[in-house]
Amino acid sequence: MKQAIAKFLPWIPTGTFGGIFLHFLLQQEWLQAGISFFLTAVSAFATSFGEGFVEELRKGGKERG
After folding, report:
1. How confident is the model at residue 65 (pLDDT cuts 50, 70, 90)?
2. pLDDT (0 to 100) of residue 26
């Protein structure tokens, strides 16, 4: 169960921004939709980058500790 939660938690911001983007898109509020799309993309990039970064930190910690 912990592993499933650990894999799900980092993607919450991306899903949240994606939902906000969808809301503004359906409301035809184009400026807000564009901004939230940008935030969704940045969040997805940061999450995928962060996973690799944390994994490298864990490897280094295991070697030293």
Report:
1. low
2. 95
Structure tokens belonging to residue 41: 């993309």
Amino acid of residue 5: I
Distance between CA atoms of residues 8 and 3, nearest Å: 9
Residue 19 one-letter amino acid: G
Q: What is the mean pLDDT of residues 40-60?
A: 78
Tokens of 63: 């070697």
The residue type of 60 is G
Question: Measuring CA to CA, which residue among 23, 27, 21 is closest to residue 41?
Answer: 21
Query: Of 6, 50, 16, 51, nearest to 36 (Cα)?
Result: 16
